[in-house]
Amino acid sequence: MNIALIVTGGTFDKEYDELTGTLFFKRTHVQEMLSLGRCRLSARLEIVMLKDSLEITDADRQVILEACQKSPESKIVITHGTDTMEHTARMLGPALADSGKTVVLTGAMIPYRFGSSDGMFNLGCAIGLVQALPPGVYIGMNGQYFDWQNVTKNRREGYFHAIKSRSRST
């Protein structure tokens, strides 16, 4: 099974400048993360941008959408900053509804380079989710997944949760 990994930046790929105390982008760390995780899947890596998600515009979201539409793979993982990940998911959801593609957006709360990042775990989960979920757009974070239209980030506690819980019929 082939998977496309579309990189947009976010905390996954931030570096720390010890002299200025700022975070910046130099390159993606996704390939290194896959190697360290001993990933055995065939995956195509495409870097569409390296941006903080707070700087992602509607035009950038259009570029992400076009990358998904043009992808020959039907399974796509997008690395994205967590601050506006749900906005991108909400744009992609309806646009890709009839595409037959499964798209999972994932990110990290702590940069990979810090060593204590949740990025490795989230990336691995997203790769598993994209293979198991039916076509649609999802966010996969912290061992959970959410449908594009039922997710929000709890900024105070630093995790994603469903906007409304799903009711179960008995």
Structure description:
With 170 residues, the chain is of the alpha/beta class. It has one domain: Rossmann fold. Helices cover 26% and strands 31% of the residues. It has 4 helices and 10 strands; from the N terminus they run E-E-E-H-E-H-E-H-E-H-E-E-E-E. The strands form 3 sheets. A 6-stranded mixed sheet has the order 4-1-5-6-7-8, with helices on both faces. Strands 2-3 form a two-stranded antiparallel sheet. A two-stranded antiparallel sheet has the order 9-10. The longest helix has 14 residues. The protein is globular.
Topology:
Layout: E1 2-9, E2 14-17, E3 22-25, H1 30-36, E4 42-51, H2 58-70, E5 75-79, H3 85-95, E6 102-106, H4 119-132, E7 136-141, E8 144-147, E9 152-154, E10 159-161
Question: Care to give the gist of this entry?
Answer:
The protein is of the alpha/beta class and 170 residues long. The protein has helices spanning 30-36, 58-70, 85-95, 119-132, and strands spanning 2-9, 14-17, 22-25, 42-51, 75-79, 102-106, 136-141, 144-147, 152-154, 159-161.
Structural class: alpha/beta
Taken in chain order, the helices and strands follow as: EEEHEHEHEHEEEE
Coarse morphology: globular
CATH architecture grouping: 3-Layer(aba) Sandwich
The largest pleated sheet is described as: 6 strands, mixed
Span between N and C termini?
37 Å
H/I helix tally: 4
Rg value = 15 Å
Supply the CATH superfamily name: L-asparaginase, N-terminal domain
The number of domains is 1
**CATH domain class name:** Alpha Beta
Beta-strand portion reads 25-35%
CATH fold assignment: Rossmann fold
Indicate the low-confidence ranges by residue numbers: none
Helix proportion: 25-40%
With strands numbered from the N-terminus, the spatial order across the biggest sheet is: 4-1-5-6-7-8
Q: What is the averaged pLDDT score?
A: 84
How many β strands by DSSP?
A: 10
